[in-house]
Write a structure and sequence with these properties.
The protein is mainly alpha-helical. The chain has 3 helices and 2 strands, in the order αββαα. This is Lipoprotein.
Length: about 150
């Protein structure tokens, strides 16, 4: 029986990450001895916050990774939205380029029309000059005929 009590007194219990001696309750101990043993066991038990701090640190790391993951998801969403907007802008640019091409074609046709108008105008001016010359010749011929 004494051997069992000795084993119990000296044995420890694994609690969480810390090994804590089992509180020995022997009738032969005085109150002061019990107080000292309890105080020692409490001091050893107070070492657990070190491990708790490690767990808290781990939890903070997990929380940080979770927040980072959420931020990355938000950025992916923003990237997807931005990509959609970029595609819309590209489509609008293509439409504008088509309209610019149509305007360039129209400008070319207008320039051709202006060139044609100038040609017609020059032709008209030339014809008008020749008509004046012809008219002058006719008048001159009429005068000569009257003289005859």
């Amino acid at each position: 029986m004494n051997k069992i009590k000795s084993i119990i007194r000296n044995s420890t219990v694994l609690l969480g990450f810390a090994t804590i001696p089992v509180l020995s309750s022997s009738c032969s101990q005085t109150k002061e001895q019990k107080y000292e043993a309890l105080k020692k066991e409490i001091n050893e038990f107070n070492e657990i916050p070190k491990y708790k701090t490690n767990i808290d640190s781990f939890n903070r790391i997990v929380t940080s990774f979770t927040q980072l993951n959420n931020k990355l998801k938000d950025k992916i969403t923003l990237t997807t939205e931005t990509s959609a907007k970029v595609n819309e802008i590209k489509k609008a640019i293509n439409e504008l380029n088509q309209q610019i091409g149509a305007f360039e074609s129209l400008k070319h046709k207008i320039n051709e029309s202006i060139d044609n108008y100038e040609d017609v105008s020059n032709l008209y001016s030339g014809t008008l000059s020749k008509l004046k010359e012809l008219n002058n010749k006719i008048e001159s011929t009429d005068k000569q005929l009257l003289i005859l």
